[in-house]
Model the fold of this input.
Amino acid sequence: MPELPEVETTRRGVEPHLTGATVTDVVVREGRLRWPVPPALAATLSGLPVLAVRRRAKYLLLEFASGTLLVHLGMSGSLRLVAADTPPQKHDHIDLILDGRTALRYRDPRRFGAMLWHVGPVEFHPLLAELGPEPLGDAFDADTLYRASRGRTTSIKQLLMDNHVVVGVGNIYANESLFEAGIRPGRAARRLTHADCERLAVAIKSILARAIEAGGSTLRDFVGASGQPGYFQQTYAVYGRAEEPCHTCGSLIRQIRQGQRSSYYCPHCQPW
DNA sequence: CTTTGCACCTGTTGGC
DNA sequence: TGCCAACAGGTGCAAA
Done:
């Protein structure tokens, strides 16, 4: 699930319940995530109030006075708020107990996610230090995309998914943005004109912003035990629509493989 | 430095 | 119905 809009939706959902609350315990039922969850996490966090919940790329950052808890949802992770005595279900690996009553519950069937503790300025954490600009920030625009694409033989779609160039653009939104910009995913990055980069940067910002808005408007169930957290069924222009007609021109959407991942495009609306 | 492919893990889907 | 292969939205890392 988690692409950037879901991560940001999650942040907005949990932030009001976390900020100002004090961690009273941490229960780790399964600590084998992408990296081992620090065994001393309960001792580290107990008694500390959450100062803020921020996001960098797809990392959620829970800030405390003495350090930062980095949380990544990987491919299948989710966070929700439940009463602390709610029985955990399968794959509910970690609870942050807040004020002894509420649990911030981390679920991740595939365990590709992460929960790491960092002391010191979090922007210097090795996982964050080399990241490119936020897609919705002013530091990412047509110029940065144009410069980043010069001399690059890789495809524009793979360049978009390179975290050094821009963060938070995963497989779905790389495909959707390229459709909106009218550019084929397989085109060499170095062949993009400045005008292409302009349309693409605008498309990325617009699509991500719209998806976050949609997530916010259907935001629910971060508090409580019912159903999945407040994600949303998004309708896509090309992603997952192989052999289906393009909503714009009726041509059949094509699917190709790029770097072991599926890409989708409309042969008419994305001429090259 | 860039590019490519693998690895981590479980669950779902589709074909036979 | 059962079995098996292929695939799934992330991303760090090693190797070429």
